[in-house]
Amino acid sequence: MRKIAYLAIPASMLVMALACRKLWEYEKEKGLPRGTILKADGPGNTYELIDSVLGGGSNAEEVPDCSHPDFGRHISEVYDSTLCKYVFLFDMHLTPDNDRCSAFDRQRNEIKTFGPSPDSLKGFLNDTVAHHWKFKLDSGFQPSPSFTHIHQIKAGDGDDGAPIITLTPRFGHPDKMQVIHTGSGSATSLGTVLQVDLTPFKGAWVEAEEHIIYKTAGTYSITIRRLKDDSVLLSYTNTNIDMWRNGTTFVRPKWGIYRSLNKTSYLRDEQVRFADFCIAKGVAWCPLYY
Q1: Cβ atoms 143, 82 nearer than 8 A
Q2: Residues 35-47: what's their mean pLDDT?
Q3: How many Å is the Cα radius of gyration of the chain?
Q4: Which tens digit of pLDDT belongs to each residue from 43-80?
Q5: Model confidence over 158-167: pLDDT tens digits?
Q6: Mean of the pLDDT values across residues 276-285?
Q7: Does the CA dihedral 119-62-50-272 come out positive or negative?
Q8: Peptide bond into 96 cis (omega under 30)
């Protein structure tokens, strides 16, 4: 039985396993550090897990729990039958969820790095940073014509109002997945730099890989692949893009659901699944499998 099971493993998986082994050996030989990894490990203590990795022990979640205490925690860990492991589940309810009981025209359920986070998880001027993560939009996911961000690159202080980069599902004909850039001012803001059909993202696990050099003439790239067939759903690169902000001392990533309530008729209760976050700075690596 064991022999049959082994032979049933797809050749592609064996190739990837060998590649992963070779990468691990290369990392070990060269002494390259691994990036910081956040993985779901099973139900319970989800906020505590996130805080221990991303927050330096502080609250790395921005959640609507105060407006919806009967539901409880809006980020949990559930078993995913496709990935065959636990993942993070982000819940958002059309009512009564809001933005932390402080803004009522929008809803926020995100995790982040921020001031108390280790320096290895924040981008300083001229730093090179990579982010890897997986996510899955529900097959019935509904964006609106207003904003729904599922990932942000945002200044941690100084001019920290608008995000520098967002990954934004947007209602349309068809619905789109957009990459949006906002620089330090109108002269360096590029707006929507890429949009693709949202349909292939719905109901499918995808893996995102993002690379950034933080400076005013910086670089930014993102590639998103669908896991089931390794097809590239989105790819964008810019080697001369404003990736810094006036008066800021660091830039950081955010993941989750952040959406406007300006057009609620387009929206519904929503769930987005995330898994396997990795932040790697400088020569650090995000491994192929973790």
Answers
A1: no
A2: 97
A3: 19
A4: 999 999 999 999 988 899 999 999 999 999 999 999 99
A5: 999 999 999 9
A6: 96
A7: negative
A8: yes
Q: Mention every residue, 6+ apart, whose C-beta is less than 8 A from residue 170.
A: 143, 144, 145, 147, 148, 176, 177, 178, 195, 198
Other C-beta atoms lying within 10 Å of the C-beta of residue 225: 18
Do residues 163 and 153 touch, judged by C-beta distance below 8 A? Answer: yes
- Phi and psi dihedrals of 284, rounded to 5? -65, 155
What does the pLDDT look like over 204-259, one tens digit per residue?
999 999 999 999 999 999 999 999 999 999 999 999 999 999 999 999 999 999 99
pLDDT at 19 over 60: no
The label of the residue with tokens 């309530």 reads: 261
**Alpha-carbon distance 243 to 165, whole Å?**
9
* Side-chain-facing half-sphere of 83: CA atoms under 13 Å: 25
| Structural domain boundaries in the chain | 1-31, 35-281
Record the tokens describing residue 95, joined without a space. Answer: 């009512």
Backbone angles phi, psi at 214, to 5 degrees: -85, 105
Q: What angle do CA 192, 196, 199 make, to 5 degrees?
A: 135
pTM, two decimal places: 0.90
Contact 252, 154 (CB under 8 A): yes
Beta bridge partners, 78, equal 87
What is the third-level CATH fold of 35-281? Jelly Rolls (2.60.120)
Phi/psi of residue 60, each to 5°? Answer: -95, 10
Closest CA to 143 of 104, 192, 176: 176
Structure tokens at 77: 């860990």
Q: How many CA atoms lie within 13 A of 20 on its CB side?
A: 11
